[in-house]
Write a structure and sequence with these properties.
The chain has 31 helices and no strands. It is an all-alpha fold.
């Protein structure tokens, strides 16, 4: 017996099985309902009804109409066996690709208007495809056909007009827009763009203004119409008419929250400066717009968040917090940019309102949210908050986490090192910056920060050598770094290394690099005052620093110490108290200076008070302070 190979049998079985399934399926789909036959003397017999044969669907689905084939004729039955049967028309169908040979039932066909819209959509898609392929002419032709099929579609008409205006064909653009207006006269978008074509392409200001005003008449609740009229008056230099348009818009009876949000957003862009300032009248109009939006949609978190954003920009932190808190309570899923970082904005508003204790647990919870847990900036924010709360170790952990999430930025390395220096973990800062320097070779800013960290770690020789390298790396690559800040840090390291003359030279270079930077003036003046050198010039330098930055407590301390050195103790006390009052936290140097000043004024009780407070803050400086305290106590006892 001949043996078949298994693969061949398998293919044959599959083919036979599929053929059988298809035959059964086609028979069941095409079978007509059974009908009753005439009774014979023997018994009733039922036979299948005749079928209507259609061409296979695959032949005309995408390739156009199918070829007509003659129906297969069956052999005629003998007259004595012929039975009459009812012929079924089969089920109704809606064809995805109807042809002249196979049309859908009348009640399943599209109405002419709907068919035009469907064809317009098809033409629009053809235009999009042509545009994507880099064929703008074919795209524009398709979009024109789409607009002619559906002229009531304002968005489509504006798109076509925009493309024509870009090609410097304003006449054709105006025709398209007017055709659309004729069919849909109450659609404001076409009037607004018609106004823009008149103004920008034809310089017909009166016609432009008329079209824009028509848009406000037919759709007073659609704010872009008002914006178009405002911009026309503003461009023409008629500020009074422009202001009148805004006032009318603000007094509108519109009941659409979207109208008021658009008005508020427009005014914010036009009037609100970067520093959050505007005229009282402008602020009133903005606030009115946003508050009306909230009145109309008080349970919409997006509206509340956008209103909170406005008050944040306007530096009205209390009002901003109120709206953010209401939005957060609604617990709605984010739907737009305003809601995207809502919880974070709420936390920042709490901090701005000096409610850090409430903000910290909310920020901790936010950082644990999987949807934002990979954001390195969130950990930086949390680290800053921990630092402000005095939780230094937790702050360092967050800075480290931020660095783990994003090691590609030199800033993250420098930020961690700064935090380590503030925590007086100088060796850790040196290690962090050494790794950063290996990762980012020849980056002068990292080398300079490493030099500063080495100076803080009291590795003065290494620090000065590293500053030399930073200067070398800056030349020809990052000349901007080789300026006042670098020289100032370098001078500080030189002074701590005992190279006083080198420090003076560097500070003078810093002043030459940037005469408007106060730091070098103060540092040089204080260095001279501390050593009793060039006191007149030192006082002038310190006063120059205060002239450039009159709110810096360090500079006020320098001035007070200058007065102390020249024997003006009352003036010294006044400036030192002023410096202490401006500090967020007490500084041991200022307290020691005040103690010395009170001693010279004969007030040993206050001198002791300030020295003892300084000793608590700076136990490393204990020997010198303890000597002063012991000497003062002996004087008191005597």
């Amino acid at each position: 017996m001949k043996r078949f190979r298994l693969p061949a049998i398998s293919r044959w079985l599959r083919s036979a099985f599929l053929s059988a399934v298809l035959c059964i399926a086609l028979t069941s789909l095409r079978a007509a309902p059974k009908s009753a036959a005439k009774k014979s003397d023997a018994k009733s017999v039922e036979v299948p009804a005749a079928r209507t044969q259609h061409p296979p669907a695959t032949e005309d689905l995408y390739e156009g109409p199918a070829t007509v084939r003659p129906l297969t004729q069956k052999p005629a039955l003998p007259a004595e066996n012929k039975l009459e049967a009812t012929i079924s028309a089969g089920p109704k169908y809606a064809d995805a690709w109807p042809s002249e040979y196979r049309k859908a039932e009348a009640d399943l066909q599209l109405a002419p208007e709907s068919e035009n819209r469907a064809n317009a959509m098809a033409e629009f898609v053809r235009g999009q495809i042509a545009s994507a392929k880099g064929d703008p002419d074919a795209a524009l032709d398709a979009w024109k056909r789409a607009s002619s099929l559906d002229p009531a579609n304002a968005d489509l008409a504006v798109k076509v007009a925009f493309e024509l205006a870009k090609r410097n064909e304003p006449g054709e653009a105006i025709r398209i827009l007017k055709d659309s207006i004729a069919v849909a006269p109450k659609e404001p978008k076409t009037h607004i763009y018609l106004s823009q074509v008149y103004e920008k392409n034809l310089n017909k200001h009166d016609l432009a203004l008329s079209a824009a005003q028509k848009a406000t008449e037919i759709a007073p609740d659609y704010f872009p119409s008002w914006a178009a009229v405002y911009e026309l008056h503003d461009a023409a230099g008629d500020k009074k008419k422009a202001a009148d348009v805004i006032e009318k818009a603000v007094k509108s009876p519109a009941k659409s929250a979207e109208y008021w949000l658009q008005l508020g957003g427009f005014l914010r862009k036009v009037f609100l400066k970067d520093d959050g300032t505007a005229s009282p009248e402008e602020l009133r109009q903005m606030e009115t717009a946003f508050r009306k939006a909230v009145e109309l949609k008080p349970d919409d978190a997006s509206v509340l968040a956008q209103t909170g954003d406005f008050f944040t920009l306007a530096r009205k932190q209390k009002e901003a917090l109120d709206f953010y808190a209401q939005a957060v309570k609604l617990n709605q899923a984010p739907t737009d940019e305003a809601m995207k970082n809502l919880r974070e904005k709420h936390i920042r508003a709490l901090i701005a309102n000096d409610r850090k204790a409430e903000a910290l647990p909310l920020l901790e919870r936010l950082a644990r949210d999987p949807s934002v847990s990979m954001r390195s900036d969130l950990y930086e924010f949390l680290a800053e908050l921990y630092e402000q709360a005095g939780q230094v170790d937790k702050a360092l952990e967050q800075y480290k986490q931020s660095l783990v999430l994003d090691v590609s930025s030199p800033t993250n390395h420098i930020r961690l090192a700064y935090a380590q220096i503030r925590a007086k973990k100088f060796d850790d800062a040196v290690a962090t910056l050494t790794k950063a320097r290996k990762k980012f070779p020849n980056r002068a800013e990292i080398t300079a920060q490493l030099a500063s960290a080495l100076s803080s770690a009291k590795r003065h020789a290494d620090a000065l050598a590293m500053f030399e390298k930073a200067a070398e790396e800056s030349r020809g690559r990052n000349e901007s770094l080789l300026g006042a800040s670098l020289f100032e840090m370098w001078a500080f390291a030189a002074e701590r290394a005992g190279q006083f003359d080198k420090a003076v030279e560097l500070l003078k270079k810093s002043i030459e690099s940037n005469p408007d930077a106060p730091g070098a003036y103060n540092d040089l003046g204080y260095m001279w005052v501390e050593r009793g050198l060039n006191l007149e010039e030192a006082g002038a330098f310190i006063k120059k620093a205060i002239e450039l930055d009159d709110d810096n407590p360090a500079y006020l301390d320098s001035l007070g110490w200058y007065f102390f050195k020249i024997g003006k103790f009352e003036e010294a006390k006044r400036e030192l108290l002023n410096a202490l009052g401006k500090m967020k936290e007490e500084d041991p140097t200022v307290l020691e200076h005040l103690g010395d000043t009170y001693e010279q004024l004969g007030n040993l009780r206050e001198a002791l008070n300030h020295w003892q407070r300084a000793l608590k803050l700076e136990p490393d400086n204990a020997d010198k302070l303890r000597e002063k305290i012991e000497a003062a106590k002996k004087k008191q006892g005597a």
